[in-house]
Specification:
Blueprint: E1 12-16, E2 21-28, E3 31-39, H1 43-56, E4 62-69, E5 75-79, H2 89-97, E6 102-103, E7 109-110, E8 116-123, H3 130-147, E9 151-164, H4 166-178, E10 182-189, E11 192-200, H5 203-216, E12 224-232
Antiparallel strand pairs: 1-9, 2-3, 3-8, 4-5, 4-8, 6-7, 9-11, 9-12, 10-11
Helix pairs in contact: 2-3
Amino acid sequence: MDPDPLLSRATRYTTIAAGTEAVAELEIKRSRFLAVVRRAGTEAEARALVDELRRGFHDARHHCSAFVLGPDRDLRRSSDDGEPAGTAGLPILEALTLRRTGTDAHGDDVADLSDVAAVVVRWFGGTLLGAGGLVRAYSDAVSRALDGARLVPRQRQRLYRLPASHAEAGRIENELRAAGTTVLGTDYGPEGAELGLALPDDDDAVAAAHARVASLTAGSARLRPVGVDWVDAGAAPR
């Protein structure tokens, strides 16, 4: 379950697209490193990834991991899983937390990746890499995986329902989508239809949506607020 959006200081962050994962592999002095990065909305989901890879690659010596959770990225954990302290889990965590995901309005780099878990599986090749070599290997493995990840912005949005007749629902939905409003879908019942909308968590955007709906329906329909939730860009709440 997502954290309460009303308790977060953030209004958006970046995560990995739902249902996808990022994978990369590298070999250093015959040691093999396999990095898997996947979306995780809870600590249980993050630990489930570790357990899955530990079962799937039980012949490996180490299954080092880290995860970052929450819109404010305030839940962070890492594990060296038998590697020398600070040479595996922390580099994995830093690869996640320092990942550049875009730029802000001032052109400065943004690093806001969250709700992600990363595991690096290592098969020992017989040659010690030293502390510096391990740090670079674990960090590079995750960074390479993230290079191929499909990232999506996740925004805090206000959710609304809009009633409409069967005859008008399609037209209203098309007009709203054309205006850039996120329409989560339309439910059809015996007495009419109801559109689900997600609006930016911003008073001006909500006021503009109210005015647009009033214009489209000649004032006959009004938006009904149903809460606040985190929504992937272009997707329905999960």
